[in-house]
Amino acid sequence: MSQPGTTDSTRRVAIITGAAEGIGRGIALRLAKDGLDLGLFDLPRAETRLQELAETLRKEYGTKVTTVYGDVSKEDDVKRLVETVVQEHGSLYAMIANAGVAINRVLHETPTEELDRLLNINVKGTFFSYKYAAIQLIKQGTGGRILGAASIASKKGIALHSAYCATKFAVRGLTQSAAMDYGKYGITVNAYAPGAIETPLLHGLDEYHTKLNGQPPGTWSNSFSNILGRNGQPEDVAKLVSFLVSDDAAFITGQSYLVDGGTCFD
């Protein structure tokens, strides 16, 4: 949501990790439409997609966009991300710790290196994003917003998702504890918890199940039942993020909100 009365020199700035595709891209499009300037972060291999997104935002919304490349699981990269965006824009208002990965494996068939990858990206990446955003926001002294990417898998265990669920339960714990740590600074900390959203991540998991079970493509990704009878789109999640970074959400903190069409009741 836009901030009435702001000028170009006072436009709020949000960082979005994992911004090149999927939910991250949807969030970037929505926050640009809302009038925020953006720092977009993704892996170097996503440079073409991220630059195309940045150009779209500049042309359609007049957004000031800074693109930064690195790995959220590396603390120095996240520190550099926040420093670069603040240097370019002058301040920070919101951190959207969106980057994440998933695998489908029964627990005893999950390779240790895959467990480490999930922990490094989903847990450490979120921790580092929260950490350096909080340091900057506390320094500024004007409050702000921190958001993390939880999941429906942060609300209940799911078969073949033991490692992934563990990392998303961890995001909920980080979010609740950080909300308690930073409330006195006027910083709210919340998370969004998507269900089945039509993204490259979901399609990659579907491909795995297609090969595993010999089923037609789309069988697994379309197997999730919810009240609304469809999978979500990135913009469905982006609408919630738009609200949580707005002034209208100033009295909400420590929460992880489902965006799942009614698959899971909390």
From TrEMBL:
InterPro entries linked to this entry: NAD(P)-bd_dom_sf, Sc_DH/Rdtase_CS, SDR_fam
GO biological process: fatty acid biosynthetic process
Nucleotide-binding in keyword set: no
GO MF annotations, alphabetized: oxidoreductase activity, acting on the CH-OH group of donors, NAD or NADP as acceptor; quinone binding
Entries under PROSITE patterns matching the protein: ADH_SHORT
Keywords: NADP
UniProt-listed Pfam families: adh_short_C2
Domain of life where this protein originates: Eukaryota
Family under the similarity heading: Belongs to the short-chain dehydrogenases/reductases (SDR) family.
Name under which the protein is recorded: Acetoin reductase family protein
